[in-house]
Design a protein that fits this description.
Helix content is 39%, strand content 16%. It has 261 residues and is an alpha/beta fold.
């Protein structure tokens, strides 16, 4: 059985909508984006080394929400390949745009995913970061089975227990993973978490640390060597996330600037 691979979308193409999403980037903006991207990548590498980790141990998922293809092209030209989106419709439009140009990249679904949208992304994404409930997990299994492929997922854990945030509690994840044989078309790769927004990003440390300790315990206790990914850290708190063990950062505005509304 193959890992879910990129497939063509049945949705109508929305290139015109994408083109209108933001003004075409001029050379100055392209240069600004590329400089910001290179500065960020170097900072990530140095932060990893300072934390006693390999320089290449942290992956950057560039969040392209509300940014058009001209902006995205600026970092693709530098060799970046991993992109994150919060919304299914916008992500599929961008996948279609690049697929038509024979440009295939790794797309990550990082936003809240409704069950009725799962069929639209299975086979199109490298990973779903935001699996926050058992019904959603069952739907991903169902749609992946129909597509005869395996979908990689992260389980979203609500470490801070904020009512405004989605996700499993820490106590719910081990019992779920103990029943992983019921999900033969899903590959569980690790955890995703979001810290509250603090004025002082140092306050995120206990949350990121708790997520790492939970991920390590689950991997060891349940003999899951591939359960080794931690998606945590955004523009405001990625330094703390790296120091606490993040393997994937979800960063957009540090690259592209303020989002167009």
């Amino acid at each position: 059985m193959n890992k879910c691979a990129l497939q063509s979308s049945a949705n109508e193409k929305e290139d015109n909508q994408l083109t209108a999403l933001i003004p075409e980037a001029n050379k100055q903006r392209e240069a600004e984006i590329q400089k910001a991207y290179e500065t960020l990548q170097e900072d990530i590498r140095q932060s990893a080394v300072r934390a006693g980790r390999p320089a290449d141990s942290v992956r950057l998922i560039a969040v392209t929400k509300n940014f058009g293809t001209a902006d995205i092209d600026a970092i693709l030209a530098l060799g970046h390949t991993e992109l994150g989106e919060n919304r299914v419709q916008e992500m599929n439009s961008k996948i279609d745009y690049y697929t038509e140009r024979n440009q295939l990249y790794s797309w990550h679904m990082i936003g809240t995913l409704q069950r009725n949208k799962v069929r639209q992304i299975v086979g199109r994404v490298a990973m779903i970061h935001s699996v926050d409930s058992l019904p959603l997990l069952k739907e991903i299994e169902k749609r992946s089975a129909e597509a005869a492929c395996v979908t990689e997922v992260l389980l979203q854990v609500n470490i801070s227990l904020e009512e405004s945030k989605h996700g499993f509690t820490s106590a719910e994840i081990a019992p779920l993973l103990q029943k992983r044989d019921k999900f033969p078309h899903i590959r569980f790769r690790g955890l995703m978490t979001m810290a509250p927004h603090y004025d002082d990003p140092e306050q995120t440390r206990p949350i990121f640390r708790a997520a790492r300790l939970l991920q390590e315990k689950l991997s060891t206790d349940l003999n899951l060597p591939d359960f080794d990914q931690l998606s945590m850290g955004m523009t405001n708190d990625y330094h703390q996330a790296i120091e606490e063990g993040s393997t994937m950062l979800r960063v957009g505005s540090a690259i592209f600037g303020s989002r167009y509304q």
